[in-house]
Amino acid sequence: MKKIITIQSTVLNDLVGNQAASLILGNLRYQVLQIPTIILSSHKGNKNFIEIPIKHNTPHSFFTALKKLYAFNNDIFLVGYVPNRKIGNSVIKIIRGQKKVVVDPVMGDTDTGIYVSQDVIKFLPKIIEQASHISLNFFEWSILTNKDYLRYDFNEIAKDAKNYCIKNNKILFIRSIIGKNKILINMIVSNKECFYIETPNIKFKKRVDGAGDISTALFTHYIFTIKDLSKTLEITTNQMFNIIKKIKNNKITIDDVISKKDVFKFKTKSLNNL
Predict the structure, then answer these.
(1) Which residues of 84-94 are buried (b: 16+ CB within 10 A; e: fewer)?
(2) Distance between CA 40 and CA 210 in Å, rounded?
(3) Is 244 a residue whose pLDDT tops 60?
(4) Chain centre to alpha carbon of residue 123
(5) pLDDT tens-digit map of 169-178
(6) Mean of the per-residue pLDDT values of the chain
(7) How buried is 172 (Cβ within 10 angstroms: 0-12 exposed, 13-18 middle, 19+ buried)?
(8) What's the pLDDT score for residue 133?
(9) What are the structural domains, with CATH classification, of the chain?
(10) 36 vs 166: CA distance, rounded Å
């Protein structure tokens, strides 16, 4: 069985962080090994949460213990929420030199604002530097590029992303770009290719946490399985849209998170002429 090491928050009450990754990737037949960066009662986007910090070198210590149980060879590492610089340094010890590393630099979202410290924001580029692939939402991309997300033009986003990938030799997955007429746009970019896909924006009365974590888990699987940017974007986005729709209709179960009956109706478009 393929292994994936997911290094992010362990959250007691919400389907986010390690819990979201384990649900999706376990469904996709991975052995999911969870390493916590912090323990939270609920998502930090909510006001009433309790956090239980862990010792600064705990992630690397856990990985050292896991290496006594498993042989790691060309396995995938997925990094999510990092609460502080000390934990970040412990995470870097794990992923440095690994070939398949997806980093989701969790910082916030358009509806919550920033929910990490400025010190974490300054430190995250050091973790991103270790990544082969980056998955982040549009709000987080605007922070990394020091742009105002409310005034960030779509073509400018694409050009900035392409230049970033050329300069840093990364593959970049940007989620939930706010488009016109209640449209959401996902984008995938490498140093050679750029594609985007549009979907309706499903509205909820109450905030749904973990959508980005689920998207990142799907992206992590398909980018290393299909190895085709356009198809990865198309399948990831359609499956995520179907999952969100099931959550909206209260019809989701563990068995049908990813269903062969799901219809893929949204298609990718090329921006390779940038």
Answers:
(1) bbebbbbbbeb
(2) 13
(3) yes
(4) 18
(5) 999 999 999 8
(6) 89
(7) buried
(8) 98
(9) 2-270 (3.40.1190.20)
(10) 32
